[in-house]
Design goal:
The protein is of the alpha+beta class and 198 residues long. It is built from three helices and eleven strands. The longest helix is centred in the N-terminal third of the chain and has 17 residues.
Length: 198
C-alpha cells in the first residue's frame, strides 16, 4: 500500500505524548469512527494512513488479475482485505494469496500462516520496505513482494524455513517476468511490465 503518513507512533518505552496501540484499542477506535473517511492500518503498534491513487489501484488490480489467471486449485487471491491480527499488527495488504477456498474464511480472516504470498504496491512509502517487511517475516509469511511503481521493478523476498527476517531481495526489472512459487512449487510466470501503469 502507499502508506504515507503516521498517525500514532510506537516506541519500546513510550514517552510522554506518544502512545503505542494494541489491536483491541485500534479496533475500538475504528468502531468508534475515530478514523471516519480515512483508510488506516496498525503496524507494530503505530497507526498509519494509507493513501491510494489511480496508478496504485491499477497495479493492484493488474496483479490480482494476473495471479488469478495462474493460481492452481487450493489457493485464492484477496485484494485489499484484512488478515488476522498478531501482536500489535493489523495490516491490510494490497494483494495476498491465501491457502484454501474463499469460503474457508467466511467467518474469520486468514491468519499469517494461511498466506502463501503477500504483495504491497508502493510509490511513496518506505514502510513497505522496512516495517512491513520485518512484520511479515516475523509472522512467518513465506513470500513477500513489493511492486515499486517509481523504480519500475518487483522486489521478491522469500523466507527461509525457520528464519525471522527476509534476506536481500531478488530484483525483477520491468522487462523481465517473475516466477510465482507457492509452497515450493512453481505455478507460472508474470510479466512485470503487465503490472505497471504506463
Amino acid at each position: 500500500m502507499s502508506t504515507t503518513s503516521m498517525i500514532g507512533r510506537a516506541e519500546a518505552t513510550p514517552r510522554a505524548g506518544r502512545v503505542r496501540f494494541t489491536v483491541p484499542e485500534f479496533e475500538a477506535m475504528l468502531d468508534a469512527g475515530l478514523f471516519a473517511g480515512r483508510h488506516v492500518e496498525l503496524l507494530d503498534g503505530e497507526v498509519y494512513e494509507v493513501v491510494k491513487n489511480p496508478p496504485h489501484d491499477f497495479a493492484v488490480g493488474a496483479l490480482a488479475d494476473s495471479l488469478k489467471n495462474i493460481l492452481p486449485p487450493g489457493y485464492h487471491v484477496r485484494e485489499e482485505k484484512s488478515i488476522a491480527s498478531w501482536g500489535r499488527w493489523r495490516p491490510e495488504p494490497d494483494v495476498a494469496v491465501a491457502r484454501g477456498d474463499r469460503r474457508r474464511y467466511q467467518a474469520t480472516h486468514p491468519k499469517p500462516r494461511d498466506l502463501a504470498l503477500v504483495v504491497e504496491v508502493t510509490d511513496t512509502s518506505l514502510q513497505d520496505r522496512t516495517r512491513k517487511r520485518s512484520g511479515y517475516a516475523k509472522a512467518g509469511i513465506p513470500a513477500y513482494w513489493i511492486l515499486d511503481l517509481n523504480a519500475r521493478h518487483l522486489e521478491v523476498y522469500t523466507l527461509p524455513s525457520g528464519a525471522i527476517r527476509y534476506p536481500e531481495p531478488v530484483i525483477v526489472p520491468a522487462g523481465d517476468s517473475v516466477e510465482l512459487v507457492l509452497d515450493g512449487t512453481t505455478v507460472g510466470r508474470i510479466a512485470v511490465a503487465s503490472l505497471l501503469p504506463e
